[in-house]
Amino acid sequence: MDPTTAELLARIPRLAGLDPGERAALLRQARGLRCPAGATLSLPGQLCEALAIVVGGTVRVYQVAESGREITLYRIEAGESCVLTASCILGRRPFPVAAVAEAPLSALLIPAPLLREWIARSAFWREYVFDLLATRLADVIAMLEEVAFRRMDARIAEFLLTRAGDDVALPITHQHIALELGTAREVVSRILRDLEREGVIARGRGTISVLRRDTLAALARRG
């Protein structure tokens, strides 16, 4: 038994429902993955050779346009898996987007042939994948509605409210906000400049401070 795999498995609550036989098979045939923040995990066109169940860290899944602009589709947190990876494994198709580790990552990898086999004969794994599909589909639809129907100033206002918390200064760049929201850096800079002129935020070198949360909240609601 690989102690690394056993350690990772013990830290995934969603796998507590495995019966003894399935647990033994997972310990025997899965493997652990550890990689640093910033590591590229997958690129468009690559084959999906395994399904990763994240134990620690965060994975950002994003789409890159021909112009080079990016938009974040969703993030994978501890206990979660990538719905696009699961879909590509089942459909035997290449990965359509990109994925990168945002923080030091630890994960449990289930090889693609084993996942297909287990889904075919195990109610537990079928339920796991179908639940993953339902959850992530709702996330992606919500993201598409944001992009298609909400004004960018409202999206930026909500982004700042969510990320800033109680911090005095949020360490973030205009480019990072643009990548998160799928727009151009120039658009973000223009909106932030207007918000600063109105006294809603203050910009520093690589930081943004929220001065009037109530005004940002009102802007987010109007959008």
Q: Structural class given helices, strands, pairing?
A: alpha+beta
Rg estimate, integer Å: 20 Å
CATH topology of the largest domain: Jelly Rolls
CATH class of the largest domain: Mainly Beta
Distance between the termini: 54 Å
Count of distinct strands: 10
- The count of helical stretches stands at 9
CATH homologous superfamily classification of the largest domain: Jelly Rolls
CATH architecture of the largest domain: Sandwich
Q: Averaged pLDDT, please?
A: 87
SSE ordering: HHEEEEEHEEHHHEHHEEH
How many domain units?
2
Runs with pLDDT <50, length 5+?
Answer: none
**Roughly how much helix do the residues carry, as a percent range?**
40-55%
Main sheet characteristics: 4 strands, antiparallel
Question: Care to give the gist of this entry?
Answer:
With 223 residues, this protein is an alpha+beta fold. It folds into two domains: 146 residues, Jelly Rolls, CATH 2.60.120.10; 73 residues, Arc Repressor Mutant, subunit A (Orthogonal Bundle).
SSE blueprint and pairings:
Elements: H1 3-10, H2 20-29, E1 31-35, E2 40-42, E3 50-56, E4 59-64, E5 70-76, H3 83-91, E6 98-101, E7 105-111, H4 112-121, H5 123-149, H6 152-164, E8 170-171, H7 174-181, H8 185-197, E9 201-204, E10 207-210, H9 213-222
Antiparallel strand pairs: 1-7, 2-6, 3-7, 4-5, 4-6, 8-10, 9-10
Helix pairs in contact: 4-5, 6-9, 7-8
Describe the 3D structure.
The chain folds into two domains: 3-148, Sandwich (Jelly Rolls), CATH 2.60.120.10; 150-222, Arc Repressor Mutant, subunit A (Orthogonal Bundle), CATH 1.10.10. Helix content is 48%, strand content 22%. The chain is built from nine helices and ten strands. Strand 9 and strand 10 form a beta hairpin. The model has no long low-confidence stretch (mean pLDDT 87).
